[in-house]
Amino acid sequence: MRIRFLQDSDLDGLLALAQAAGVGVTTLSADPQRLAARIAASTQSVEGSPDLADASYFFVLEDETTGTLVGTSGIEAAIGMHDTWYNYRVGLAVHASRELEIYKQLTTLFLNSDLTGASELCSLFLLPDWRKDGNGSLLSRCRFLFMAEFPERFSERVIAEMRGVSDENGRSPFWESLGRHFFKMDFARADFLSYVGDKSFIAELMPSYPIYTCLLSEEAQAAIGEVHPGTRPARKLLEGEGFRYSGYVDIFDAGPSLESPLKDIRAIRDSRLYQALAVNAEPKGGVPWLVSNRKLGSFKCALAQTRPLEDSLPLTAAVLARLDIEDGDVVRAVPLSA
Questions:
Q1: CB under 8 Å to 12, separation ≥6 — which residues?
Q2: Where in the chain is the domain with CATH 3.40.630.30?
Q3: Shortest CA distance to 220 belongs to which of 186, 287, 181, 174?
Q4: Backbone angles phi, psi at 24, to 5 degrees
């Protein structure tokens, strides 16, 4: 298995992945034209030197022996630079009266654009049958080796919006208790309009004053800052890399935004350069490592069971082939987990 950039010829396979992802992975909408545009934007970003506001990168996990595409992940270099980026910030309001001996702390939601300009990890999806053998970690963490290699292409602040709570039919309790009252449309429709850039309706219809969460249903309150069951592994992985929830949630499903300074992400901070050393077999005592070929235009990333020897990293012929490199080439690598 290996990571590479998506190409125009991958459109049919990408569409199949988007259809399998369903509601909730907003940036992986099953629209052929929009998916083709995302591939084109990624290609243009790699081939040029775009402003952060215009740059995006779109990766795919591929079984290189069959050409089967099994998962995607992406990075937006800077969000909210062309369209307003909205979140709720979870806050606290205190109401007190000494005369009445009443003291209340009430959770509030403030509409804001505080995350504007941050780089966003997005479009993470892996087919259920392939959620094994470290594939999920490879698909998510590969982005960090790319960012470590080309930090000038990203913001100093990195976020990841986690999919919020919804049922098997795509019903979001938070949306039903709050958003529907103002938008009069289904959660999936509102989420899609926001994704495609039609965000004017948010400013026009969403209340700009604080919302007291005690006025929402208990189910909706419980959903604030929580993730969809299928997203829990992704959240755990990011938290293991140093990401933290800092009180920002999605305005539609209240899923949490996790964030970290770019330089503090574990896989970026701890990654090192090694000289690839061709070996016939995996070294004894080896552990899973994430390895990339350091090439901008033809970036590849794969897992290797190995252990470093000073400045060299033993890699089998199969791994060298996945990375499209030769013995002696310099790679960037980091242990898969801390």
A1: none
A2: 1-76+121-155
A3: 174
A4: 115, -35
How does pLDDT run across 281-314, given as a tens digit for each residue?
A: 998 889 999 999 999 989 999 999 999 998 999 9
What is the CATH number that goes with domain 1-76+121-155? 3.40.630.30
Query: Model confidence over 103-157: pLDDT tens digits?
Result: 999 999 999 999 999 999 999 989 989 999 999 999 999 999 999 999 999 999 9
SS3 2: strand
- Selected from 2.30.38.10, 2.40.40.20, 1.10.10.10, 2.40.50.100, the CATH number assigned to the domain covering 270-335 reads 2.40.40.20
Determine which of 58-67, 169-178, 237-246, 250-259 has the lowest per-residue pLDDT on average: 169-178
Quick check: is 95 catalytic? no
Q: State pTM to two decimals.
A: 0.90
The pLDDT, as a whole number, for residue 24 is 56
Alpha-carbon 243 to chain mean position: 11
* Alpha carbon separation from 43 to 6, 55, 58, 120 (Å, rounded): 8, 10, 8, 18
Q: Which of 82, 95, 181, 228 is catalytic?
A: 228
Is there a contact between 61 and 135 (Cβ–Cβ < 8 Å)?
Answer: yes
**What are the residue ranges of CATH 2.40.40.20 in the chain?**
270-335
Helix (H) or strand (E) holding 259: strand 256-261
Q: Which H or E run includes 146? A: helix 135-149
- 219's CB contacts (< 8 A; 6+ apart) are 173, 177
Asked whether the predicted pLDDT for residue 205 surpasses 80, the reply is no
Tell me which H or E stretch contains 222: helix 218-223
Q: Express each pLDDT in 172-202 by its tens digit.
A: 899 999 988 887 777 767 666 666 555 556 7
Candidates 22, 258, 240, 1; CA nearest to 125 is 22
